[in-house]
């Protein structure tokens, strides 16, 4: 009886690995879109409950709710896989987009407007490399002619 206990201990990590790898594998029967659309709102409801903990003015600060959002994303992935659908898919994406519209419609990304530097800076940045290239080319030609005369 004691000899079987070590064998079981060695099988446990293998079983856990198999559960992790295939625990969320979609069934072979195919995607049940109706069931998926019925299950995804549960994820949205849970996310809504978690977002109540975050003040509305902090909804655009990802660090305030990243854990809740990760949980929401994982939930949609699991629910989609349980009914045999791949994730993401167009239906799941449209559900997630709806959640985004509800919570993050006022969040905008402040994009920096790039513009050229003033001419006083831009002209030297263009002219100096050109002049250095010409000077180096002239120096190489002059040295190669001089070396040919010495030999």
Automatic annotation (TrEMBL):
Regions crossing the membrane: 121-142
Per UniProt, subcellular location reads as: Cell membrane
Any single biological process term in GO: protein transport
A GO cellular component term found in this entry reads:
adrenomedullin receptor complex
Q: Give any Pfam family that matches.
A: RAMP
What keywords are annotated for this sequence in UniProt? Cell membrane, Disulfide bond, Glycoprotein, Membrane, Receptor, Signal, Transmembrane, Transmembrane helix, Transport
* Molecular function (Gene Ontology), one example: coreceptor activity
Q: Which domain of life is it from?
A: Eukaryota
Regarding the membrane, this protein is recorded as: Single-pass type I membrane protein
- Main localization category: membrane
Q: InterPro entries from the xrefs?
A: RAMP, RAMP_sf
* Annotated signal sequence range: 1-30
What the record says about family reads: Belongs to the RAMP family.
What this protein is called in its record is Receptor activity-modifying protein 3
Q: Which organism is it from?
A: Sus scrofa
